[in-house]
Amino acid sequence: xxxLDGKCAVVTGASRGIGQAVCVxxxxxxxxxxxxxxxxxxxxxxxxxxxxxxxxxxxxxxDVSCLEEFQGAIKEASSEFSSIDILVxxxxxxxxNLLIRMSSEDWQKVIDINLTGVFNGVKAVxxxxxxxxxxxxxxxxxxxxxxxxxxxxxxxxxxxxxLGITKSAAREMAKRGVRxxxxxxxxxxxxxxxxxxxGARKALMDxxxxxRLGEPEDVANxxxxxxxxxxxxxxxxxxxxxxxxxx
Length: 247
Ligand code: NAD
Fold this sequence. Notes:
Strand order of the largest sheet: 3-2-1-4-5-6-7
Largest sheet: 7 strands, parallel
Bound molecules: nicotinamide-adenine-dinucleotide
CATH architecture: 3-Layer(aba) Sandwich
Radius of gyration: 17 Å
Shape: globular
Number of strands: 7
CATH class: Alpha Beta
Order of helices and strands: EHEHEHEHEHHEHHHE
Number of helices: 9
CATH topology: Rossmann fold
Structural class: alpha/beta
Distance between the termini: 35 Å
């Protein structure tokens, strides 16, 4: 018996990293999974891992920054599964540069995927969730959305914006049984952080009280908690999973 038995979870950016770990964790706790990614073929590994847990996995190709594509994917998911109970807005990118060198394109691209992508997701599932009077939406923000970071004006603005969406959507939908929370991960060991230089990695350790990078599973465990009824009295919250960086 899992706490998510009979539930269906949509996870964006599901093909690797944190998104993949979230899919596996939710499946281990009983949920069927709809994995959304801009890279359809790359979803195969996640599909295999979820099916190995005995749960169903539907792969869907969608660019989260396009509302029509997101809504189309949710429509397809809804015809496969009786309800959408959980949405994890996880897809995200970086296009780092110092302010004076950052192009408008790099600003806009990050805002389109990381911020508008979350708006699109919340919009795509909220009507049905309010109608069924239950649902849990989890938005993946970042420690950088709380603290800022040189070279990441676009990314930190997008991730701070995600907290605004989370709190406003939580207030709008609380009475209809829909909870909306955010997670602010610190530095998690994925392809996104593989790109850090040895020097940057060393400097980072001085700012992480727990003195190691996090694992995707550290974030996935918190997603599971927020997705399940274990957190039924929580909405509009931001949980840091960052080794103590933002205490
Ligand atoms: P990752 O780069 O390993 O994976 C991102 C996934 O999103 C990929 O599967 C990619 O194909 C998908 N994706 C990218 N653009 C998309 C789009 N337009 N539409 C649909 N899918 C798209 O990243 P990760 O490290 O696993 O990060 C996942 C989330 O966690 C991101 O929102 C990221 O900002 C956030 N985060 C990561 C860290 C970290 O240290 N890794 C820290 C804080 C927050």
